[in-house]
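Troubleshooting: if your tokenizer reports a length mismatch, compare against these two reference records.
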Amino acid sequence: MANEVTYQLYIRLSRACRIQAGRLPYRRLPAGWYVYTGSARRNLAARVERHLRRDKPRRWHIDWLLTRREARVIHVVLSQAAECPLNAETGGEVLIPGFGASDCRAACGSHLRYLGSERPAAVPAESLHRRQPGLRALRTALGAEE
């Protein structure tokens, strides 16, 4: 879709946890790095800023992860690439089948991928030391800062 912008949230889970996202079954997530791929047709900044807040009603699968104390969005990447191909290119391991993919027609399996314990190359090292790294990365990607 021409007006659709894809975003990727790079999330660091400080310790293992068990979550249940909506109607999906409980799953154990190991500590480490995750990437969530989503898209927005309009109000991209508002959508991503909502993801960055902890205090919110749980509406999407990602909300069940991002409202946890252990989870922190460290980096945000915006792309004009289509959501599902970008998700597939990202690689990583699917730990929660169906997560964020209820409207997916490309058989992605999940839009949340586990990337392991090492910082992904897509995440700048300085992001680890920022107070609100996700919000700053979003503003930078939108051209509002730096």
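Reference record two:
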Amino acid sequence: LVSDAYTYSAAHEFLSAVTRVGTDQTLTGKSVTGGVFDAAPAEFGILAPGNKIKAVVLYMDTGSPSTSPLLFYMDSVQGLPMDTNGGEVRVPWDTGPNKIAAVGLPFYPKAGQRLLSAELPLTGATLKAVMLPASYVYDAAHEFLPDLGAAVGSAVTLTGVTVAGGVLDANDVDFGAVAAGSTASYIALYADTGTAATSPVVLYLPSVVGFPMTTNGSGVVVQWSSAAAKIVSLLGTA
């Protein structure tokens, strides 16, 4: 529970930066399904009067506030802001589709699930980009590379992959010369495991600059956005 004495900053990284009220509680009943994170309501017990709670922060406890990374800052939780009055404090999470938090488009839902479950390290995986034809139809159930169907040209490994401030970026992608006669309409990113059947699809990017593009045998280079979100921002994807 966060005191109204605290001022949010995007630069805050560890728990030691947060002014807290009461005793922190460990989340129970945690689940991640289809990129949606949920848990049982948080029970904080009786809190002495005289404090104002403005938000809830979730963090990963390492045993030390100076090394416990902050994960979520939530100031729109039901009942907040709240003045403590000596009664019990219980925080119910949103009953809507996003629950505590959700990783939405352009992430495929199964990729969002892997991301929130720490099973998909974006900077540790071999991310590849593949061009998809106009005939491809996005489906939230798509999970692995074969689900995407036939590609335009060959997949290319991303280089210079970084995640900074929640933003995924990489070097522009050079697909080389692509045979004439196809139309590239979308790009998908996937994590290559060496086997197509187990290579999870990660991102569906339908708004690529210059697409749809009819191939003519010349080289194809895709430039990622130079705006703040780059390839994708992990903040506010739901």
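Descriptive notes for reference record two:
- The first strand starts at residue 2 and ends at 3.
- The radius of gyration is 22 Å.
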